[in-house]
Amino acid sequence: MLMRGGTSKGAYFLAGDLPADPAARDGLLLRIMGSPDPRQIDGLGGAHPLTSKVAVVSASADPKADVDYLFLQVGVERPEVTDRQNCGNLLAGVGPFAVERGLVAAGDGETSVRIRMRNTGELAVATFPTPGGRVDYTGSAEISGVPGTAAAVVIEFPPGSGPLLPTGRARDTVVGTEVTCVDNGMPTVLIPARSLEVTGYEDPRDLEEDTALADRLREIRLEAGRLMGLGDVENATVPKLSLLAPPRHGGAVTTRTFIPVRCHTSIGVLGAASVAAGLLVPRGVGEGIARLPAPGDRVRVEHPTGFLEVETSVDPGSGDTPPTVRRTAVVRTARKIFDGTVFPRSAGTAPTPAQPSGDNDDSATR
């Protein structure tokens, strides 16, 4: 099933319909998505990291969950498939997909699906309308970065088991730059845009074309990854890097987020959850930049195509007690695009990566 989840699009599979061997599975997915090729002309991929994604769903053996969700990022120009990050956007489609495939019985009115995210082991609960016991994708909810309206999918994240501040500090100095390293579902490095000699309001493409900025961000990411306990992140898609600037449209903060090489045209759900929580950490780099809402109000995270609102609360801690997250929830939408049979490229016919063209898109795992 091809679905839009939040501001991403991906292919959703039942785990039993894919090879059990990870190498065989990944090889098949590359052929299904049309990678490696900057256009992904011979597969389902949309020639961008945000549209070259896969969700693998199965019934869960965990008594706290109904289904398991494994997210796989499929490279665009490189023959790579990675499970080293999660995706909160495709997560929005997991509950409806589980009902569509009969893994979870629908309620009459609305249905809540408990989801274990296998990439991290964390849990989420997605609630969405199911009038008459059928998923209804129509509704009045709007999210920035997606045209039109659709049914709301409310996703609540119980507090994670890992620390909110992986380094144990509200601020770290990385490559001469003050940052806040935070993980509220997505390892993220918060960086004041001004410290990198940019405004934070630039068009994503302009930021991508700034080679000096790219070199600096790479250095920061590699060192921050080690500080966050992620090891060598040279070939990983985490941590994400989020540049912070004062808000322009009534929100809490303006962001430009690198995923990790391309600059996101919006912001990921879990990335926004980490940004929102990071802004609430006392003495973090967001101080003096963000305009925080009143306690209990949603944190509106501005991005290049609009905003994403996060309901979050943080216990600031005291003394030797570190800050912790009390609650995180977001409103997303999802839509079924088609349900059918995909015919993958034949095995053994992987193409030589095409030469970049004027509308070339890079892989998120470069």
From TrEMBL:
<dbReference type="GO" id="GO:0016853">
    <property type="term" value="F:isomerase activity"/>
</dbReference>
<feature type="region of interest" description="Disordered">
    <location>
        <begin position="342"/>
        <end position="366"/>
    </location>
</feature>
<keyword id="KW-0413">Isomerase</keyword>
<dbReference type="InterPro" id="IPR047687">
    <property type="entry name" value="OMA_tautomer-like"/>
</dbReference>
<comment type="similarity">
    <text>Belongs to the PrpF family.</text>
</comment>
<dbReference type="InterPro" id="IPR007400">
    <property type="entry name" value="PrpF-like"/>
</dbReference>
<dbReference type="Pfam" id="PF04303">
    <property type="entry name" value="PrpF"/>
</dbReference>
<protein>
    <submittedName>
        <fullName>4-oxalomesaconate tautomerase</fullName>
    </submittedName>
</protein>
